[in-house]
Specification:
- It is a single chain.
- By secondary structure, this protein is an all-alpha fold.
- The protein contains two helices and no strands.
- 55% of the residues lie in helices and 0% in strands.
């Protein structure tokens, strides 16, 4: 069986040298005007929802939220009653 650090013949393998460190690439200086132009360009490409879609999505979100709140409340109440009944003196 070959041991770590040995070649197949059982001889000690030579130590490996680390690769030379690379210099980090130079970054272009930060330009706030260019950044804002790019942000504006990207925001023009966004498919914004219309008013009816926003109302629909909001309604679905609120109904789902209220349903989950009611479900968790009922589970919490049931488990609390069950624990109190289980450990009743």
């Amino acid at each position: 069986m070959q041991r770590q650090g040995q070649d197949p013949e059982g001889e000690t393998a030579p130590a490996r040298t680390a690769a030379p460190a690379r210099k980090p690439a130079k970054r272009a200086p930060f330009r706030i005007g260019q950044f804002l132009r790019e942000v504006r360009s990207e925001l023009r490409q966004v498919a914004w929802p219309n008013r009816a879609e926003v109302i629909n999505y909001t309604t679905v979100t609120l109904v789902t939220l209220l349903s989950l709140m009611a479900f968790i409340f009922i589970l919490n109440l049931a488990f609390a009653k069950g624990v109190l009944w289980l450990f009743k003196p």
